[in-house]
Amino acid sequence: MNYESEETRPRVGLLWRGDPATAETPTPQNNRLYPLFKAFADLNVIAEPVIYSDEMVNEIRGRLIRFDGVLVWVDPITDGHDRSKLDPMLRDVAVHGVLVSAHPDVIQTMGTKEVLFRTRHFGWGGDTHLYPSAREFEVQFPERLKSSGIRILKQRRGNGGIGTWKIQLANSEAGDALVQVQEARRNGPVEKMRLSAFMRRCAQYFSADGGLIDQQFQPRVAEGTIRCYLVQNRVVGFSTQMPRAPGDFAMAREKTMYENSEPKFARLKTEMESEWVPALQQLFGLDTNSLPAVWDADFLYGPKSQSGDDTYVLGEINVSAVLPFPPSAVNAIAQAALTRMLAVRSSRAARDV
Nearest to residue 315, comparing CAs of 101, 126, 133? Predict the structure, then answer.
């Protein structure tokens, strides 16, 4: 696309967390998002890397409000850091007429584990419960665990398996049962302890806007996970991950990428685009333009249907920092972001008249 001058070319920032004082000076070529920088360049968009740190939040805000858009890759939890300073800044930048994707309000709506509870009636849902307080967890969880023998607990907002636990009864004794627990983060050990001790460990998850989600264990976890990548409301690719070792709960880092035309995921693609994403939008009041430029939904295999087909159970939705993604998604992400930036620019110009 051609523009009247260099000054009228759209400008987008690609933002991720780092330490500007010690990190290598970022360029479009020396980072994992290089294909996206190239895709923007092919669209005649000026794309700049932005390294974020809490200590420089005001300086970074001043830079971002000069852009037409900013695409953000920052996990909810990273090495003791969270998004408590980043998110208010991004909200303010958006108020100034800059496209922010994913917007913090959209992350709060669809990018936390609470979405598993609120969409439990969807075709991707199942036996799922929410404990918004420690008291409800204390009263309700032991009986659910004892009736099923094994459950999955997930803190409301996390990443990398942090705060996601597999809890299994180690015996059938009454009272304070012995349980076997494992966190889904990489290298998470298998531990045995009393249920009461594990539940005390979970107290940390009820601070601020926290809580715990309780899901039924899926026996087919050994067959791995399927990650479905989307640009707004369209599927743009898939990846698969396998457990680190036989019987392990956590997934290995390695992913196998697939284009959105992969035949073995054709039915999953159809269900996402025709049923589940529209239902998600309706439930949360999200129009297509509000959906992130890139996001993903992670699935486990559920029980086989009566006809022998696979079913899929949602494990989480990732919005904050989706990386890597299939090569086939790159151009779609850039084009969607450009379309939204031009629309926001037009709205800003009309407002300023």
Answer: 126
